[in-house]
Specification:
Strand content: 15-25%
Strand order of the largest sheet: 3-2-1-4-5-7-6
Radius of gyration: 19 Å
Number of strands: 7
Number of helices: 9
Structural class: alpha/beta
Low-confidence stretches: none
Mean pLDDT: 94
Distance between the termini: 44 Å
C-alpha cells in the first residue's frame, strides 16, 4: 500500500481527520516536543525573518516557530485542506501565522522570501524530495537556513522478541504511511545536491512503553492494512490490536523509532 501522506489531498475526509488526530497526538508527546526544541536550538536565525513550514499538517510546528525570537511571521503549507482547516482553528489566537494549500515541490512564493524553511517529518513522504529541497533553496534568502527533521523509519519496531507478530503491524504501517523509509541515511547528499552547506546533524531516539498513544497507532494502522490487503482476516487484526493493548496494560508494550535532524545554510560562499 502506498504512503497515504504522499497523496493526502486525494484521501477521504474521514481518513484525513483521523490522521490529523494522530498528528496532534504526536505533537503533544513530551519527547516529541523535546526533540523539536533540541534541533530548533541549532538554528541561527536571521533577525526579523519569515519562516516557512513545509508539510505543516495541523500546524503544530508552525505554532512553535511563531514563538521563536527573531521570527517575524510563519507560513505553513500543506496539500491537505482538512489538515489546514484544523491548523487554522488551532492557531486562531496566533497573530503571525498564516496557512496556504500548496505542494512543497512547487511553492507559490517568490525567490528569497524566507529566512528559514522547515521540513518536520515531511520529506520522507515526498516523492522526489530533492525537488522540494531545490524549492526551499529558491525561496530562501542568501544565508537562510533549512531545517529537516524526520524518522529513520527502517528502525520502527513494536517487537519484544524474535518473530513477534506485532512487528508485522509496524512494517505494514510504515509501508502505508511512509514513502521513503531510507530518507535519513541519504539526507546529507540530498541537501548538498540542492546547493546547501550542511552545518549540523543530530540523532534522536523515540520510545514509548507506558501510555503508548502514538506507537499504539502503528499497531492499529498496521493491523488494518494487513486486513485490507487480504493478508490476514478481520479476526486476527482485532487480535493483534488486543495483544498490543494487553501488553500496554501489563507494562510490556515497547515501541521505538530513531529520528535525525539536519541544519543547512544557503551559503553565499
Amino acid at each position: 500500500m502506498a504512503d497515504v501522506y504522499a497523496t493526502i489531498a486525494e484521501a477521504g475526509d474521514d481518513v484525513q481527520e483521523r490522521l490529523a488526530d494522530v498528528l496532534e497526538c504526536r505533537a503533544a508527546n513530551p519527547r516529541q516536543q523535546s526533540m523539536l526544541r533540541e534541533y530548533l536550538a541549532d538554528i541561527t536565525l536571521l533577525a526579523g525573518g519569515a519562516a516557512l513550514d513545509v508539510g505543516c499538517g495541523t500546524g503544530a510546528v508552525s505554532r512553535v516557530l511563531a514563538t521563536l525570537p527573531g521570527v517575524s511571521a510563519v507560513t505553513g503549507v500543506d496539500p491537505s485542506p482538512v489538515f489546514l482547516a484544523r491548523a487554522r482553528e488551532l492557531s486562531s489566537s496566533v497573530a503571525n501565522i498564516s496557512f496556504k494549500e500548496a505542494d512543497g515541490r512547487c511553492l507559490p512564493f517568490e525567490d528569497n522570501s524566507f529566512a528559514l524553511v522547515v521540513f518536520h517529518t515531511t520529506l520522507s513522504h515526498v516523492p522526489d524530495p530533492g525537488r522540494a529541497l531545490a524549492e526551499a533553496f529558491r525561496v530562501l534568502v542568501p544565508n537562510g537556513t533549512v531545517a529537516v527533521f524526520d524518522g529513520n523509519y527502517t528502525t520502527t519496531t513494536l517487537a519484544i522478541g524474535e518473530n513477534d507478530p506485532l512487528q508485522a503491524c509496524a512494517d505494514a504501517a510504515m509501508a502505508a504511511l511512509v514513502h521513503d523509509r531510507w530518507l535519513i541515511p541519504g539526507l546529507p547528499a540530498l541537501v548538498r545536491n540542492a546547493g546547501f552547506k550542511v552545518m549540523k546533524q543530530r540523532s534522536f531516539g523515540f520510545m514509548e512503553s507506558s501510555e503508548p498513544d502514538y506507537m499504539m497507532s502503528f499497531a492499529d494502522r498496521g493491523a488494518d492494512v494487513l486486513a485490507a490487503d487480504g493478508i490476514i482476516g478481520a479476526e486476527l487484526a482485532a487480535a493483534l490490536k488486543a495483544e498490543a493493548r494487553r501488553r500496554a496494560a501489563a507494562g510490556r508494550f515497547f515501541g521505538h523509532i530513531a529520528y535525525g535532524s539536519l541544519i543547512a545554510n544557503k551559503s553565499t560562499e
